[in-house]
Design goal:
Blueprint: H1 5-15, H2 21-54, H3 62-65, E1 67-68, E2 73-74, H4 81-84, H5 88-97, H6 110-124
Antiparallel strand pairs: 1-2
Helix pairs in contact: 2-6, 5-6
Length: 127
């Protein structure tokens, strides 16, 4: 059974007595674990975005055409993303709709597009 910090504190208020050490420790552990899982999810998103950039699930991979230092990519067909510094919305729009000679990548899921867009925007500082 999941216990939230709010429910522990509410129990204390209803009972009109202070929250015990065990309850505070349990709440602190829950908060730590929740924060840790969020950090792990962010790391997994970044890894997934990088993997999509380098290999992708469709051809060609982004790295074939674009330069991106974090990925070790030195493509010269598309713009240098380190210089362009696109935000996540701009990357997602280009991936979904295509732009210039870049085709739309319809085969990518929304989650893939979001992970890729977030990765590129974060490593280029385009947020």
């Amino acid at each position: 059974m999941a216990v939230s910090m709010r429910s522990i504190l509410m129990q204390s208020v209803v009972r009109r007595r202070p929250v015990g050490r065990r309850s505070r420790a349990a709440a602190a552990c829950l908060l730590f674990l929740a924060g840790g899982s969020a950090l792990a999810a962010e790391a997994n998103d970044a890894e997934a975005g990088r993997a999509l950039f380098l290999k992708g699930t469709t051809a060609p991979a982004c790295a074939v055409c674009h330069t991106l230092a974090d990925a070790g990519a030195a493509g010269t067909i598309g713009p240098n993303l380190d210089e362009l510094k696109p935000d996540a919305g701009r990357v997602a729009q280009a991936v979904r709709n295509g732009i210039g000679v870049m085709p739309a990548f319809d085969a990518l899921s929304d989650a893939d597009v979001q992970a890729l867009a977030k990765y590129v925007s974060e490593v280029t500082g385009g947020q």
